[in-house]
Amino acid sequence: MAADWSRVARRIRVPMGFVFAGVYLWLARPTFVSMAWSLLLVLPGLWLRGYAAGYVKKNAELTMTGPYAHTRNPLYVGSMLIAFGFAAASKSIVIILLLAVLFAIIYIPVIRSEEEFLRSKFAGFDAYAAHVPRLLPRLRPARVADSEPGQFSLPLYRKHREYNALMGATAIYAVLALRIIFKH
Question: Could you name the CATH architecture of 2-181?
Fold first, then answer.
């Protein structure tokens, strides 16, 4: 049953994000102050996603350096920071609660499924997982025995098209600002 839901969750996570965005824009009651405060989560989230995208070589190697030495899922941590930043901007407890439920029912099974895949593909995954937490980042980077030194790669960042997150965040802020300006 869990494996079935995991497959469903992987397929629906992006479409559900668009559905949630529609609900978000309908329920949000932002102010310029709440939008400014939201930047405290959104900007670090965008930075973390961009930084992680410049390290990861999906399905080709087990990335254990850069942000992956602090958390096994820096892309998801960045997404959560962005999402909860926008939830704070909305000033809606309903949005915050819906977002928490959505992350729990979609991303927990997706992360577990991805970890099963990584465990089956990369012999060093269990050693890596023993030193690096799943989500909550460790303050000091882990040093896993088999990890090669890595560095940020702008071509990888571009390949993963992580700049789309920045464009999406900018568009959402623009729509929120227009809602404030033109609210009746």
Answer: Up-down Bundle (1.20)
- DSSP annotation of 140: S
Instruction: List pLDDT tens digits, range 22-79.
Output: 888 888 999 999 999 999 999 999 999 999 999 998 888 899 999 999 999 999 999 9
CA 42, 55, 121, 165 torsion-angle sign? positive
Domains of the chain, by residue range, sit at: 2-181
- Global pTM reads 0.90
From the list 146, 141, 3, the residue with the least C-alpha distance to 72 is: 141
Name, in order, each residue with C-beta under 8 angstroms of 119's C-beta and a sequence gap of 6 or more.
125, 126, 129
Euclidean distance between the first and final Cα of the chain, in Å? 48
56 neighbors 160 (Cβ within 8 angstroms): yes
Residues in the chain, total: 184
